[in-house]
Specification:
It is a single chain. With 287 residues, the chain is α/β, with parallel strands linked by helices. Helix content is 40%, strand content 18%. The chain contains nine helices and nine strands. This is Nucleotide-binding protein.
Length: 287
């Protein structure tokens, strides 16, 4: 059975992710206590199902400790199990809770009297939840949803589902340093040292996917040199990541605004590795 466990920090988009998996044909269960996972898998197998997606979060923290062992047991039984961990920067999570006016799931935990004066702050709840879920984050593929729209997150998850049978997927992501380094990056390369098309007014409206910017960067010797260095580094270490049984390797390329140089480099790297590896593209700052 193909099993995707979707978990992560409250407010990071687990409901959106679960809906995307349901659209992709998965039988979905939300907020399942981890100790019931193996029982659910057995039940679905008896019903002839072969695709299952389950959302778990800190509301079931008392039984989360045993989840890694359950995952290993399911894998030993021949199931294809992947963990998708959604997270976001604390300021993004605070803004989302403020917009929806929802309380954090941990805000009333073990406080039956619900005395407002004794309740932890939202920031305290988020920090506590990160601590509780850190063992699970280490065994999953992380997606940083800070600044992502619901539509973009759905698209990213559907792209991932389409490549889930590959032994390892190379995920190239462009980003802007001024908006922060993606939390889900495994490797980060800084290309801000390269000539910036932004300062050419004729190139500024374009992106690294457009012919004028591509033609400009193609003529820059340092661009070709840095691109080669990054490519050789990935080629050298990719076998080691495969041997580590990774499902995804996220390579993030950053420039100042995430429009020109980083986009160009990601497109070039994806083009090179696409002939031999399973590749996905993300341009975080592009519409």
């Amino acid at each position: 059975m193909r099993i995707i466990l979707i978990t992560g920090i409250s407010g990071s988009g687990k409901s959106v992710g679960l809906n995307a998996l349901e659209d992709a044909g998965y039988f979905c269960v939300d907020n399942l206590p981890p100790k019931l996972l193996r029982q659910l898998v057995a039940t679905r197998l008896e019903e002839g199902a072969d695709m299952l997606a389950v959302a778990m979060d800190a509301r079931s923290s008392d039984s989360l400790a045993g989840l890694p062992a359950d995952i290993q047991q399911l894998k030993s039984e021949g199931h294809d199990v992947k963990v998708l961990f959604l997270t976001a920067k604390t300021e993004s999570l605070i803004a989302r809770f403020s917009e929806t006016r929802r309380s954090h799931p941990l805000s009333h935990r073990n406080r039956p009297d619900k005395n407002i004066a004794d309740q932890p702050t939202l920031t305290e709840c988020i920090l506590r939840e990160r601590e509780m879920l850190s063992p699970i984050e280490g065994i999953g593929h992380v997606i940083d949803t800070s600044g992502l729209s619901a539509n973009k997150l759905r698209a990213w998850i559907k792209d991932m589902v389409a490549t889930e049978r590959a032994p390892l997927t190379l995920l190239f992501e462009s980003f802007a340093f001024k908006f922060g380094v993606p939390l889900d990056a495994d490797l980060v390369f800084d290309v801000r040292v390269l000539p910036n098309p932004y300062y050419d007014l004729s190139l500024r409206p374009f992106t690294g996917r457009d012919a004028p910017v591509i033609a400009f960067l193609d003529t820059q010797a340092h661009v070709a040199e840095l691109l080669t260095d990054i490519r050789l580094f990935i080629e050298k270490w990719l076998p080691a990541f495969k041997n580590d049984n990774r499902s995804y390797l996220t390579v993030a390329i950053g420039c100042t605004g995430g429009q020109h140089r980083s986009v160009y480099m990601v497109e070039r790297l994806a083009q090179h590795f696409g002939s031999s590896e399973r590749v996905l593209l993300r341009h975080r700052e592009l519409a």
